[in-house]
Design goal:
- It is a single chain.
- By secondary structure, this protein is α/β, with parallel strands linked by helices.
- It folds into 2 domains: 2-72 and 229-401, Alkaline Phosphatase, subunit A (3-Layer(aba) Sandwich); 82-225, no CATH class.
- The protein contains 14 helices and 15 strands.
- The strands form 3 sheets. Strands 11-10-12-1-13-14-2-15 form an 8-stranded mixed β-sheet, sandwiched between helices. Strands 3, 4, 5, 6 and 9 form a 5-stranded antiparallel β-sheet that branches.
- Strand 5 and strand 6 form a beta hairpin.
- The longest helix is centred in the last third of the chain and has 23 residues, at 308-330.
Length: 403
Amino acid sequence: MKYIVIVGDGMADRPLRELGGKTPLQHASTPNMDRLAAQSRQGRVRTIPEGMHPGSDVANLSILGYDPRIYYSGRAPLEAASIGVKLEDDDVAFRCNLVTLKFSPDRSTAVMEDYSSGHITTEEAARLIKEIDAELGTDKIRFYPGVSYRHLMVWSKGLAEVECVPPHDILGKDIVDYLPVGKGEEVLRKLMRDSADLLDGHPVNRERERNGKNPGNSIWFWGQGKKPAIPTFKEKYGVGGSLISAVDLTRGLGIYAGFSILNVPGMTGYLDTNYKGKAEAALASLKETDFVYIHVESPDEAGHSGRCEDKIRAIEDFDRLVVGTVMDGAADLGECRILLLPDHPTPIELRTHTGDPVPFVLFDSREEMEKRDVKFDEEITKMPDALSFEDGYTLMDFFIKGK
């Protein structure tokens, strides 16, 4: 049996007036997801346990069959694994975004203008982070470059009991009410202030501004935690596999789960990502293994931007180039199961994640399903015979074991 999980990050949404009361998923043309839904079991799953922050880390941990209430220890440790940073037991890792702050003329106040510095390139960002590490790093605090705006700070013997707010949750807001609060806040706030002074007028930022692009003019800490201790996927389910994602947190989760991490040229985590390459690499990997997890970030990025047209485009590209390619190739795999779902909603109007349940479809090549006229969207969660998983991590048990 071959197992394929396809995750459209943040693909679910809420009805929009500009779309005549439809969600982007309902409005988009998705013939391949609809075709898969027509041959599958449909259902709803709550990937975010009550009371937990609706992050992609929590949601993807859930989808992979790990109870976040037991195994979640923070986002940044997963990203550390992805970029090859080994954490000691007493290290605390922080996600370190390069952000664009809009300062008042006297620089006494600032608004969060862009959580991604205009999706700064990895090469430009690396120059900024290396400068920050050289000037602000110490024997206890080090900075590590990641991909685009996503980077890492590791604090040896650091303090994790501090409340940090994701920058994509406070777009357009004065940052004063959202700075780190708790043990270690003074250290974190000073590093953020000092980074803004250091990056102001940096050659990389001057060039970006000349070209009409947002500068990476400050760092922003969030998602902190210590390294997790989780069993491998093979230990849990007796199945080994691979994972494909452009996002460090998902790749890091795959590393901790014991997967092979597949690198595909042109993966960006954005609208220009190599969708088809991901699907083709996934199918190729199944010649050597039995499980593959395909994660596509672009719908989530479009949701954070608040651009409805971009989210529709991301969903349609995902449908055509990922789901379509997988379905065309699945016929050559023999017996297989396919699980398709978003990890969480990222509503356009909110521009951030919510913990609402998401739709899923589960295809099994051995089952003869009565074909229905079904569109893959949020409404399938309301079908009379829809499956329901309130504890999201139990969906993987059902997917692998059939119970």
